[in-house]
Write a structure and sequence with these properties.
By secondary structure, the chain is of the alpha+beta class. Helices cover 35% and strands 12% of the residues. A 6-stranded antiparallel sheet has the order 1-5-4-3-2-6. A hairpin with an 8-residue loop joins strand 4 and strand 5. Helix 2 runs antiparallel to helix 3. The radius of gyration is 25 Å and the shape is extended.
């Protein structure tokens, strides 16, 4: 029958910033760039998601009791594996908190650097005036890293009208950049918030008056495009208006892949 184990659901590895794993991780993170830290954050999120999926497959959570009412290990669960996974999740969560703190510090340094550049080199951060389809941004900024690639553009779509092309890399989408796009979920939210309105016939067959139409909301999109005439990529600023009713699926008519 076994011995009662009232605390079997409690992980046996140390947790918190004092754990040896966390200390090693903190030392190893010293000197990493902001991009490196963001990549580490994504890797941690992926591992935590995978481990949570394993718990789900067992039908348990982090709080599910692993003992019977009288204190014996449950024989319907792989208790050893669940305890190991829980311990790993707790350790990764602690690492995740420490990593977020490092990212916050790096972001402060990032914005401070941007302000210094704007003060000492104002021409480097001022974009050139753009045409209706988009214009080239003077002084390519090293502070805006691409986070998505255009994998397809449909003819006649809002994306094509804005000037997006296959292979373009998105560096900024409105107020969304490589730091906060959250696997492009924030891009989708921005598209929904800024959906434009096009003229549609009323029931009588006439078009609605301008006063009855919603305002078209454009999104400033900064991209990086390979330049065949130069080894360095070209940076452009486009104006994109998401809208339905253009003759295809979605509000943009393009497909983005995270980098």
């Amino acid at each position: 029958m076994g011995l009662p184990m009232d605390d079997i659901h409690t992980p046996t590895v140390p947790s918190g910033p004092a754990s040896s794993h966390t200390t090693r991780s903190t030392n190893k993170d010293d000197g990493k760039t902001l991009l490196d830290l963001i990549a580490d954050k994504s890797n941690l999120e992926e591992e935590l998601k995978a481990l949570s999926g394993v718990l789900d497959s067992h039908g348990v959570t982090m709080d599910t009791s692993l003992t019977t009412f009288d204190g014996y290990p449950r024989d319907d669960l792989d208790v050893a594996q669940i305890r190991t996974i829980r311990a790993r999740i707790i350790r990764l969560r602690n690492d995740y908190k420490g990593l977020l703190s490092k990212i916050e510090d790096a972001l402060h340094a990032h914005h401070a650097q941007a302000r210094n550049i704007a003060i000492t080199q104002p021409h480097a951060s001022s974009p050139a005036s753009s045409s209706a389809g988009g214009g080239q941004v003077s002084g390519a900024s090293t502070l805006e890293a691409p986070f998505a690639r255009v994998n397809g553009v449909v003819a006649g779509s809002p994306a094509e009208a804005a000037g997006l092309r296959l292979g373009d890399k998105i560096c900024r989408f409105g107020d969304i950049d490589w730091v906060n796009h959250e696997k492009l979920s924030k891009v989708a939210e921005a598209v929904q918030r800024n959906e434009g309105v096009i003229h549609t016939p009323s029931k009588a067959g006439a078009f609605a008056a301008d006063g009855d139409l919603g305002k078209q909301r454009s999104i400033v999109v900064k991209i990086q495009r390979n330049n065949t005439a130069s080894s360095s990529p070209e940076r452009l600023q486009l104006s994109l208006i998401p809208r339905g009713g253009w003759g295809g699926r979605g509000l943009l008519g393009c497909h983005l892949l995270p980098l």
